[in-house]
Amino acid sequence: QVHLQQSGGGSVQPGGSLALACEVTGKTDDIWVMGWYRQAPGNRRKTVARIDNKGATEYEDSVEGRFTISRDDNWNVVYLQMNGLKPEDTAVYYCNIGSSSSDYWGQGTQVTVSS
Asked: Which of 60, 75, 78, 99 could join 29 in a cystine, given CB atoms 3.0 to 4.6 angstroms apart?
């Protein structure tokens, strides 16, 4: 059974940094993409960043240049380094992996940016 375990996150002042990690356990079919999404209260879940099986990355416009997505070589862990955090980055963050058979989601991690 595939399981995604998230860690990191928390609270920080504007301009600060936080990091998220998501560990994948269990047998999966070929993973073709790993990503991070976020959902603020009253809003739908939105893509933050993704990295595909060729190493290509894409970012939501508002985080471009501030956030960095990366993964380990074995596709076991995906990371999100968040710098220059702003209050509008406050949300629950979810990791996601897409495989040839299914999508899987982490449990969600709260990130709060406030002074």
From this structure: 99
